[in-house]
Amino acid sequence: METIIILVFVLGYLAITVEHSIKIDKLIPALVMMAISWALISLGIDSFTQWFDSANHGLVDGFASLGHESKMHIMEETLLHHLGKTAEILVFLLGAMTIVEIIDYFDGFSTIKSFIKTNSKRKILWIFAILAFVLSAIIDNLTATIVLISILQKIVKDRDVRIWYAGLIIIAANAGGAWSPIGDVTTTMLWIGKKVTTGHLFAYLFVPSLLCMLVPTFIASFMPAFKGTLEKVEVDTDKPKSKFSSTMLYLGLGGIISVPIFKTVTHLPPYVGMMLALGVVAIFAEIYSNSKFAISGIDSDEHKEHSSHSPVHHSLSKIELPSILFFLGILMAVAALESLGILFGFAGTLQDTMPMLGTELHGEGVSDLVVLLLGVGSAVIDNVPLVAASLGMFSEPIDNELWHFIAYSAGTGGSMLIIGSAAGVVAMGMEKIDFFWYIKKISWLALVGFLVGAVAFMFTRTLL
């Protein structure tokens, strides 16, 4: 049964990669393989000999000897756990995307556009790469990617040029998220799991992460796609202009930035803070919108009839729901493989078959090559379960260099494929980037940056 489930995942994964050839939106195979995988698990639950407890990051003891009802109960609890974790990400994503759309409703991004005085493609590349690196460490790589691509859509008119920028934003955002405890989901897992501390994380990973961003950006700056100047973007006359543009931009971005602070103070999941930020931004948006109508001489009754003028309603209608459903499908499908212990076994196999390759880390004698392959694996399969598996496999103390290397590899390795990271998945949805285009044009840049950063980490740890 495990073989069949793996086959379903591979076929679904293949359908996602060739969506432009088969003319089927990627959300369809993602949802189908998710549903079929869990259905097969339910039907064949008695044939499975192991089960991965994601909540405790380890295999369930004596799972094979349990009865049918007990196994079904564990499966239902696990499914609910994964749905909850996935929902946290999706609700967070919905909140961030809505705030971005509210800012756009008031034409807030025109403020940032006015700061960018150059039309040089190369200079704009460096501006966005640096912004992605810094912002992702503050507001996490997922939200930074949403914000920057939204701004990019207002600046770069030609989509064929824009997707090149999006590809480099993915690399820079993932690199920036690796050295911050709130910059990437996997780094946050290690931080919450008391495997790394903020100070040591910065000391070990800032330089490797910076090089992981700088080297691909430097190489790309000499490529034909970034030579010359950009066309001037025409003003969108259909978008309502507002004197509140700058206010809404700073309020919206301030709300997003406040999320990690809220999490640190309250210890609540980030999506709670994001909903609070959305609520505050929405209040001001409605107030400013009402004042706009009052100035225009439109009475309240007529305003009610024009619900489309509500910035919140308008922003929610602009959300990319197909991207949200795709995210749901792919994360829950990966969760199925994780629950069966397949990903845990994959990480364990790497450790068992290649214990002597590469320079060994302290503690368990885990080789660098194993950690690097975990990074490569995170590009193919979601990095969250791979890091979860490593939490259960290794027992090094807090701030051991192994945990920092895992944080770097899992955080930046996903850039090598567009569906290897949350930032890539969002960019794929927002810009409809083709899977194979990304492999041909961007993946090798991500690989170069990943390897340069890894070498820098190996050098850095000798100094610490």
Describe this structure in words.
The protein has 464 residues and is an all-alpha fold. Helices cover 72% and strands 1% of the residues. The chain is built from 21 helices and 2 strands. It has helices spanning 2-17, 19-22, 27-43, 68-105, 109-115, 121-139, 141-155, 159-178, 185-192, 198-220, 245-266, 270-296, 300-305, 311-317, 321-339, 342-353, 368-380, 383-393, 401-413, 422-431, 435-463, and strands at 52-53, 58-59. The protein has a two-stranded antiparallel sheet. Strand 1 (52-53) and strand 2 (58-59) form a beta hairpin. The protein is globular. The protein starts with a helix and ends with a helix. Residues 235-240, 294-300, 302-307 and 356-364 have low confidence and may be disordered.
